[in-house]
Amino acid sequence: MIGAAALALVVAIVLMLVRALSGPTLYDRVLAVNSIGTKIVLLLGVLGFLTGRPDFLDISLLYALINFVATIAVLKFFRYRSFQVPLLRRSRGRKS
Amino acid sequence: MTGNEGAAEAIDLLNVGLLSILFIVAIAMARLRSLFAIVMLSGIYSLVSATWFVALDAVDVAFTEASVGAGISTALFLAAMVLTSRTAKPEKGATKIIPLLVVVVTGAVLVYATIDLPGFGDPSSPANTHVGIEYLARTKAEIGIPNVVTAVLASYRGFDTLGEVGVVFAAGLAVTLLLGFGERALGSSLSQGAGPAGQGSESSSEGGEVADD
Question: Does residue B128 lie within any of the structural domains?
Answer without folding.
Answer: no
